């Protein structure tokens, strides 16, 4: 098994992704080597390779929605064996000792966790993500893909799934709760499916009515266009929880006005630009403005099991790796239904063709 594997990488800010090779580390005692089958395309991949969140460590091999099959395990690995179906999300390491890690919330590691790509690993090397043939990850950061979840529709669960599951759970999405999801993209479509499966009453707030049929089919009971100013009057005070999945800044005052007393506007979208609000938007109805980032390993496994139990996967458009740049443009144009997933088999072809 060679440590040199084929990948797709951005070599500089804003440059299209191109074929590239990366060097994996040797499989250490606690490591699992995974043959990657599918990698979802998250909007965060695009923010990163375009330097929207600050200078990236090029070459960047993005991809933190990874599913595949275990190809090798280290001598001290206990939870996985060769041939197991597994997934890796946004994190590949953390201190394991701080209060957050002990609680199973490695995403809030006080000593700094290690992200799957564009981060410095504990070995001092830049981490490389899922747009590649293989990855080596320490066992603690590997999840099991339950039987019954296909690897292509499971891949987006490792980021889009957990990023929406965690705040929906945290702020009590369930029977009797009126939940709105802003933005019907990769995260948003999973939020609709998950909130519905939790028993909440779900409304989609999308820029236009173009995806209305899809939104209702995904499980929403109502769907409104935010480009129509009448929407904000009609829905004033209507929701207990609003999950904002939008990749661009929003008018927070307008969305806060849609919350009932004690309602929560939870943001998971991560635009580069700051957002402002009027204090009164929070004070008058004792509203909360909150944020949430991905989820810990324990909750990620819980989410995968929940999805399997409810027959939920992402709605995906599977593409070849050579279509990745075109897919990025379509994500930027809000023309994704609802997650692009790269079939990494094309990387093998690219390699054997030299
Ligand atoms: P996506 O598939 O592009 O979906 C974003 C959706 O936002 C679009 O489909 C569109 O929905 C809406 N939108 C886009 N531009 C807009 C604008 N100018 N005004 C209003 N609505 C707009 O992206 P994604 O992969 O779901 O990611 C969404 C955001 O979450 C990104 O910023 C990403 O970096 C972030 N993220 C955060 C976490 C976390 O842990 N917090 C994890 C993953 C991703 P409509 O067409 O329906 O309006
Ligand atoms: Zn992501």
TrEMBL record:
One of its GO terms (molecular function) is oxidoreductase activity. The keyword Oxidoreductase applies. SUPFAM superfamilies: GroES-like, NAD(P)-binding Rossmann-fold domains. Its cofactor is Zn(2+). It comes from the Bacteria. It holds the Pfam family ADH_zinc_N. InterPro entries: ADH-like_C, ADH-like_N, ADH_Zn_CS, CAD-like, ER, GroES-like_sf, NAD(P)-bd_dom_sf. The keyword Cytoplasm does not apply. Its EC number is 1.1.1.2. It catalyses: a primary alcohol + NADP(+) = an aldehyde + NADPH + H(+). Keywords: Metal-binding, Oxidoreductase, Zinc. Residues 9-342 form the Enoyl reductase (ER) domain. Belongs to the zinc-containing alcohol dehydrogenase family. PANTHER family: ALDEHYDE REDUCTASE. This is alcohol dehydrogenase (NADP(+)). It comes from Dactylosporangium vinaceum.
